[in-house]
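Figure caption, in words: inputs first, then the predicted bound structure.
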Amino acid sequence: MRDSECQICREYILKKDGTKYIEAAHIKAKKDKGNETLENILLLCPNHHKEFDLGDLNIVFHSKEKIEFTLNENDYEITLLINS
Ligand SMILES: [Zn+2]
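Bound structure (zinc ion present):
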């Protein structure tokens, strides 16, 4: 995947083979009938993945192109992968 940095903080974990490790977070969880399409996925570092899953998340706006949300009182606006 071309963009393999955290979409919140731009951090990633560099593996010894030189590639980047990043996690795919589902905006809408699979158990809540979220799907595997790019508009439902954020690439996040492990810290932000857990914060997204476990923190106080409030999705303000979510379209095919972007998502706006507050997470533990921080505001984020992220362009989704479908455009990259
Ligand atoms: Zn991050």
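The first strand starts at residue 13 and ends at 14.
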